[in-house]
Write the structure tokens for this entry.
Amino acid sequence: MSAPGYPVLLDLHGRRTLVVGGGPVAARRATGLLEAGATVDVVAPWLCEELAELVAEHRVSWQARDYAAGDIDGSWFVHTATGDPATDDAVAAAAEAAGTWCVRADDARRSAAWTPAVARGADGVVVAVSGGRDPGRARAIRDAVAAGLDTATLPVRRHRPVHRAAVGTVHLVGGGPGHDDLLTVRGRRLLATADVVVVDRLAPRGVLEHLAEDVEVVDCGKAPGHHQLTQDQINDVLVDRARRGLTVVRLKGGDPFVLGRGGEEALACRAAGVPVSVVPGVTSVVSVPAAAGIPVTHRGVSTSFALVSAHDGIDPVVRAAHEHASTTTLVLLMGIRLLRDSAAALVSAGRPSTTPVAVIERGWTPGQRTTVGTLADIAELAERRRVSSPAVVVVGDVVALRDRIGAQHPELP
Ligand code: SAH
């Protein structure tokens, strides 16, 4: 290409196009033209299987012979992919003389027109990339842009419908344990459509940077003891924004239905007649131990685990110890403030004081740290190391596997 080129989209619907050549490249071109609604004539002495099928299905017409002068007459658009430079030359020259656009597959530099790598969005968006002389690179860029749009990692929001619904929807989205890329693809997609994002402290906050400037972000900043918004106030915000016809994403840490009051928020929306959807998230219950290299179950060690909230006192911890066999792994959330009492209560309830315990702080973040001890000494160790929330406490023999499996790095290598 000597000049920079002039991008254009053609409406080929019902228009006559010509494909010269019968091989796989010609087949791909013919398929693309058919998808655009064009009428496709093929001139080639033989056909590959794919083209032969299109002919058999009467989707393209076929002249079974070599290209001949006059074949392009009446064509709007021509692809030549014969594999024979002399024939491609002849087709291109005839097209030039007739003022018809011609793409030649053999030599992009001598072509008068090019077909870009294309991705089509459900909303009618067409992403077309031309990679200069490197079609592979064009396809790679096209794929990256399409994925970026799909997952909202590119800073463009899907366009809001002009006629906004009378009532919007609230999506309760589990954000995973902290790292942005542990949020589900569905969660990312919904974030790309959000008018309002109501976010918790433990949600993956890096994703907020990708939101468009006009997206309202309501920060619930639930630091322990510093509730910026009460649960009732959060429910009110969700309902209020949805009633204004807005799409609301309620971005929560971990999974919305695991000690996250997602159920209460869903019920509040239902009571107000607001549509609500739930998007599960990667819960810290299993993923934060995994970050430290601890599987919550392991064949021959433990075949069950129990989740316990230690937020409102140690009664649930004591109950769990009585209700479950000593081989059941116990996973304590919100367990730092009462760690000493919990460990003592578990020993009183019959768990051996030598039972291994791991405390994993800030899993899947750069500040991840694991403290390992036993029920007898974990409180002492945690105090000495100034262990703080958020942290997950794992009690059970599975903790010993950590040495062999190894801590996971928060980032992909
Ligand atoms: N819905 C969340 C849990 C909310 S309760 C989920 O499914 O994960 C909040 C508790 O989760 C914290 O006190 C802590 O015990 C745990 N937690 C959440 N994210 C964590 C992280 N990245 N590292 C360590 N603990 C975490």
